[in-house]
Design goal:
With 330 residues, this protein is α/β, with parallel strands linked by helices. Helix content is 35%, strand content 24%.
Length: 330
């Protein structure tokens, strides 16, 4: 697992809304090795989805990449032409979106949509196939995601399936095209707790069986800890902590990480968490220095004007916080 598959370097992304520029991603650095499972956690609105969409270069029209780069197998995604991007999306990297209702086309049957994806991938790979062969692969994909009665599912429209079934269809579509990297953007949103667990276990099993790399964005912190090798903690478009999952969850360093984990509900009870005071900053005018300093109980004077750099506190465990600089706060 030494080869780097995906590397995001100093990525800056902004959105223009009603003529106002919102600076969302503020120098994101993230890497994924071949066969590695990565988790990204943080509050809603902190830039996790924007980061994943940047990898496939599918940001909306009002977004602008202002700096940095995204490398896949050492090649810049941001500099790829349309043919190279098409090949990347059809054969290398796929994404499970958080809302299958919006991602699936409501006027086509599930089988038609899956057929088109498999056919496009085979064409891109230069592998000709008969209609029967493609239909067999489509049926096998439905079986792999543990959907009963594949024929009925393939003949159904999206609205005829439950939320959990639609999400499994989305996983099947991702498996149909992504052969190396799977991007899972909160794949259990709007599902009940029991279905959430089933979906996450299914993704984990498939990733292990196919030896895929994965970037999992999820608010299910327990599942993230169980599934991934390393974790990135994101706050307001910045990475504030990263490291092995057991180290980050077992011994969090950044004040934000500590407060985020403390906010998660626990099976043992113990009352309701108060959450993290305050809110994510206004991206049209983000605070200088550490973006978390207005909400941080440990903020020092330097935090208010100078962004902290990452420092290693344990092997592979890094944190962007002046509390770990020792005497060198500059």
């Amino acid at each position: 697992m030494s080869e780097t598959l995906l590397e995001i370097r100093g990525l800056h992304v902004s959105y223009t809304v009603y003529g106002i520029r919102h600076h969302v991603l503020n120098g994101i650095n993230l890497s994924v090795r071949k066969g590695e499972k990565i988790g990204v956690i943080g509050e809603s609105g902190c830039g996790k989805t924007t980061t994943l969409k940047s990898v496939l270069k599918i940001l909306p029209e009002n977004a602008r990449i202002e700096g940095g780069d995204v490398l896949f197998n050492g090649k810049s995604v941001l500099k790829m032409n349309s043919a190279e991007l098409r090949k990347l999306r059809r054969t290398k990297v796929s994404m499970i979106f958080q809302d299958p209702t919006a991602a699936l086309n409501p006027v086509f049957r599930i089988g038609e949509q899956l057929f088109d994806i498999v056919n496009a991938r085979r064409e891109e790979e230069g592998k000709g196939a008969s209609k029967k062969e493609i239909e067999e692969e489509v049926t096998e994909l439905i079986r792999q995601v543990m959907l009963p009665e594949p024929k009925r599912v393939l003949n159904s429209y999206p609205f005829q399936l439950s939320g959990g079934m639609r999400q499994r269809v989305m996983i099947a579509m991702a498996l149909a095209s992504g052969r190396e990297l799977l991007l899972a953007d909160e794949p259990t949103t709007n599902l009940d707790v029991t279905i959430q667990d089933q979906i996450l276990r299914l993704i984990g099993n498939i990733v292990s069986e196919r030896k895929l790399s994965i970037v999992l964005v999820s608010h299910a912190l327990g599942a993230v800890r169980r599934m991934v090798d390393r974790v990135y903690v994101m706050y307001a478009g910045t990475i504030v902590e990263e490291g092995p999952s057991n180290s980050v969850f077992g011994n969090p360093k950044h004040p934000y990480t500590k407060m985020l984990l403390a906010s998660a509900p626990k099976l043992t009870g113990g009352g309701i968490s108060e959450g993290i005071p305050g809110r994510i900053p206004d991206y049209s005018n983000p605070p200088p220095g550490c973006r978390f300093h207005p909400r941080c109980p440990m903020a020092a004077a330097v935090c208010k004007f100078k962004p902290p750099r990452m420092v290693e506190v344990e092997k592979g465990h890094k944190v962007a916080c002046y509390n770990y600089y020792g005497d060198d706060a500059e």
